Amino acid sequence: MDHRPFEDWLLDNHTLTTDQERQLNTHLRMCSSCAALAEVNLALVSVRVAAPAAGFTDRFQVRLASKKQALRRRNFWGFLLLTVSVLGLFGWVSWPVLKDLIQSPVNLLASWISSLVSFWGSLQAIIRAGMVLFKVVPGFVPDYVWAVILFAAGGWSMVWIVSLMKFTKYRQGV
Amino acid sequence: MTDETTWIIQAQQGDDEAFTKLVETYQKPVYNLCYRMLGEPETAEDAAQETFLKVYQNLTRYDRERSFATWLLSIAAHHCIDRLRRRRFTSISIDEDEEGQTDLPDRSAPDPESETAKRQERERLHNHLQSLDPTDRAAIIMRYWQDCSEVEIAQALKLTVPAVKSRLHRARRALADLWEEKPAHVRTERKPYGSPAF
Question: Is the overall model pTM greater than 0.80, yes or no?
Fold first, then answer.
């Protein structure tokens, strides 16, 4: 049996003319498939909203309180575990130094001061070399190269900002 | 500013009392969606409670430019779809009505037979719903029980509007096929149709 256009009328919820209604009713008397669709439509538009048992909000509050308590407990144990782990790791890594510090603190202190002085000397040498280069190199670089570098830096910053905005925009929904 | 917007803002700032008001306002639509999706009152209660917990935890992410009801129902629908996917099999009680009580005819109703017939029709529809694909089921429930537009359903279920239309058509056709399987003696007399074509 040809269900068209009756099935489309039923599925699309068309507003029907009197003549179309008559045609549809005639078709529905003969076609069990379209009649079932019409019955489902009727059943769907007369549905009833189910309500939860009384005290839903109270039960939710109890559940929320228990969830919060569980979260607090988890956070406490998590923090404790992390602290113990960090302290343990720190102790394990720094044990050779701590051992020296306990056995001969003066030698260890002298060694640290010597390293610090050496580091400071190296840093000053690097700064001096950098200053010299900073004064000399710009003279060798043509102006258009500076323009290209500035343009590239600007473009890169734009890409960076747009990417950050795109990825940090929160999504609606679950 | 509406009461709802005020409650949302207060709840976003950590006011649990304001959130409770939102729960009171939306408990029925959320529970109904879960019940129609999952088929059992106990599971629906649990799913509805979990939905509100998820909403509570994610409330700061809610965009006030959008409808709160749609956002809430979206969370409920996805929660139920996830549960159905995890569920290996379903065992739906056909002896319970919407409130989870035994299906007895309402003696105080003007026409108890007609009331019983209507109740049976509702039960049949509810049982047939359980055989639909979870997303199709969610679309049907949001359309007919929650009165959502196709655009709102599309937003909630993360689908396009044509996809929602197609799913609604498919689901109603599937429900009609199941409906047709009913024995002839049980079939209720169909009333003549008016416009629109319902």
Answer: no
